[in-house]
DNA sequence: GTGAAAGCGCTAACAA
DNA sequence: TTGTTAGCGCTTTCAC
């Protein structure tokens, strides 16, 4: 059984020799060219089976006319995070339909990791790139764009680069969620979110402010917290806010982990049924908590659809100027956002 | 700016021409061979920058001595499911350290998808494969194993094939969890799990039975449910069990979504603080619920470590016979499993 | 319908 | 230290 360990894989030449024909005919059989004599096809297939021959597609791609590798690169924040992995999965499905495989990698908010990974993906000659970017300057991609490599940005737009972009309606949706709280009688609403240097955080805060302004509520900086850096940080903010006089009656949490931290902090103080809470981003257990957590969620499969659609259209030669698509979100009331003032 | 759209990428030959040297010298510079005259290195690098040249690694691999592609294939149940994506992420980190990229795909419990994906990965000449298998017959991989392709199975062992395998201590851990319930005074414990045709489900049920037997409790088939096929199915079982006389006082849920369904069903009946519950697999929100959910969780990063370790050792020539590793799990009591009888 | 020869972009072997 | 040639496994071109 171990007789052929590390024996080099058979090549098309060996298949040709065994079936008594030329490598070109074997190639024709492999590619399903119909003009080959059925008897020859049979002999070739027999030899393929006998040798356990597996064509080397990377070798073929080298000479193949359009030079495609049928591989795309996908750069995510973190493969393990739910937003990333759902996006990945949706893109996998769409790529698979087209016989395209996906090389995915995590950036962990490290710009140099973004550049490194893109470099290795280009060295592998991926046909295109879908990027949830982390860098604040994408000028380094201008030459790639110019030489025809399709690149689509998702969740966050590029900086110093014109490219197709697919984002959620961050500002609009944050405004609507805030208005939902205002509609339930809240006039003092705390905001907890990421650093405003992050595109989505800035947009969501803009929407939050717009809602207050429209309702003629004034913005109290003492109940606004940017740059949340972990559960403890959020907990500390919430603790301090509720220890003071005139605490807020509602909280808008602008992002996944911030919402979780807020839930924890409220539970810890026994306030989860007294203080209204609306969060941005999905939480798998939102409906299992008490109260259920009202959330604004991104339509990930729509985002994947539009992003892949753009990428594959570009691959098929579409040459119009870069497009930006804003994908509507989904608001699901579950109780926490409907606690009245 | 669009002047060079679709202009073919420059090759090593053009870099050689522009820098007035040979392609071999350019190749040396690219590969950091130290014996090149510094002045030449400078000229070559200048030409590379000027042309925006990017080496084509797939072309290089074709001739390169060990024939490696520095790519591994990773087959998962579903890229978007938390177990899969965490495993993926952990493997990505370990692969990255070695300059290896990961091509991942979802099998969705479809055996033919497993075979198809493996075929395309072999056609791409991945250096090795890490598989969370779905097929019940891996004889089709014997030739690949024999010809030296390292394959490591994770979470479930292969059938009709000898290969490295990394699994959790499913039976032992299920037994310990059941004994934990018994230790809290429970004598009637319901079991809810996947079809026993699934390896992990069968193992966990074996552990469950062993605990009962050791405590001299008899197994009541009317409170055992296999082949859970969705939330409704689990809910229906739990509803019916608690509608009858002599209901169980505790539940062992053998898998992720089954546990969630059980939590929902218990909440629905207002029993979540009366009936003890221990689940297998991790839930992100386990500590946010009331009561917190006591869970047996797999040590995913240990599994990834061992699996990647094995794979890369094989790639480095390790030739000993196939190994099977059982990775201990982690039990975290959070309340639901400590409800007494 | 079939095959010989060239060549994809690179590295290996061997000279110089 | 540098360059020439061959060749990785395949597809293309073009002739038969």
From TrEMBL, chains A, B:
Gene3D superfamilies, per database record: 3.40.50.2300, lambda repressor-like DNA-binding domains
One protein family per Pfam: Peripla_BP_1
Domain annotation HTH lacI-type: ranges: 10-64
The keyword DNA-binding belongs to this UniProt entry's keyword annotation: yes
Gene Ontology molecular function terms on file: DNA-binding transcription factor activity; transcription cis-regulatory region binding
UniProt keyword list: DNA-binding, Transcription, Transcription regulation
Coiled-coil parts of chain: none
InterPro entries in the cross-refs: HTH_LacI, Lambda_DNA-bd_dom_sf, Peripla_BP/Lac1_sug-bd_dom, Peripla_BP_I
The protein's name in its UniProt record: Unannotated protein
Native source organism of the sequence: freshwater metagenome
